[in-house]
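Quick question: who can interpret this fold?

. . .
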Amino acid sequence: MNNVLDMAEVIVVDKQRCHWKNGTCNCDCDCTSDTSTSCTGCKEVCPVEAISRNISVEIDRKKCILCGACIDACPFSAISKQHLIGISS
C-alpha cells in the first residue's frame, strides 16, 4: 500500500487576533451584534455565506470557495489561507 501526501488549502481564523469574542466585537467600533450593519468585516464580504459569528468567528469549510475576500476585509489580519498536509493511503 502506497501512502500519498495530500495538501489542501483552507481559510483559518486566528482566535487571538480576531476581535469577535464571546459573541460580540471587542474593538472601538459600534459593531455589537451579529446583524450589525456598521461592521464591514469578514462575514459581510463572504459571497457564499461561509462565515458565521456566534461566540467566535467560524468558517464553514464545505461552503468556503477560498476567494480570500475575508482575508482582505479583516482589519486585524486575523484570517489567513493555510495549507494542510495529510497522508492518505
In short: The chain has a mean pLDDT of 82. DSSP finds two helices and six strands in the chain. The CA atoms of residues 50 and 64 lie 5 Å apart.
